[in-house]
Amino acid sequence: MGKSQNVYDNEIFFEGYKEIRKQENNYNILQEQPAIKSLLPDLKGKRILDLGCGYGESCSYFIEKGAQKVVGIDISKKMLEVAEKENSHMNIEYLEESMDDIDKLSGKFDIVYSSLALHYIEDFKKLLMGINNLLSEDGLFIYSQEHPLSTAHEKGQRWTRDENGMGAHYNLANYMESGKREVTWFINGVIKYHRTFSEIINTVNECGFQIEKILEPLPSEEDIKLIPKMVQDFHKPNFLILRAGKK
Ligand SMILES: C[S@@+](CC[C@H](N)C(=O)[O-])C[C@H]1O[C@@H](n2cnc3c(N)ncnc32)[C@H](O)[C@@H]1O
Description:
This protein is α/β, with parallel strands linked by helices. Helices cover 29% and strands 29% of the residues. Residues 4, 8, 52-55, 57-58, 73-76, 79, 98-100, 115-117, 120-121 line the site of S-adenosylmethionine.
């Protein structure tokens, strides 16, 4: 299987992504982050590995909540530069590594965490086996990814829209065809990997985990006031978020 693309180091992509993350309200802030953070246990004294840590915002959060040691890895130099600048701490170590090379990492962690990065990885099974190896005996794996109903998409219009431009039906196609997707997000040719829901759940199980909780967050009424198009999320979730313990 191939190596991951490092799209966050593309100048145009990096700037586009930065604009979204600068917004006061966005899908991360309103939906994904509260949901994934709700799955974390008490972090006091915990050793945490953050895969695809990006700007390092979660790494800082873990330290604020009492984590003893945090390691953040990311494939992108540009993302790590921001992390070093904005979220450095004596107990956070940032490493420029690809999740494809998880077997290069050593040590044991109480929690392996990853927010919206695992859909960039082709070899899901290898990654999950590597995560399992890095976890302490009663360790936890907590991650979010783009929902499989989203990653299925490759071309054409995602939505059939009503007269107000609001999504009335989601146009699902090729859901049962797992594998590479090349999509346009800021630039053409952004590579992600689609896996069906059953493939994700079965792989997590087969790699030595016991699934404890799965979340598909919905917007609140307040969220919809802030971002009206979130009403579409009642047709299709955006995120799949999972917490699993080591078996
Ligand atoms: C959507 S961003 C999320 C960043 C961060 N987890 C957060 O929640 O703010 C995805 C991150 O995954 C990183 N990434 C993508 N492929 C990767 C790989 N193969 N190994 C390590 N990091 C990767 C990207 O560089 C990017 O920083």
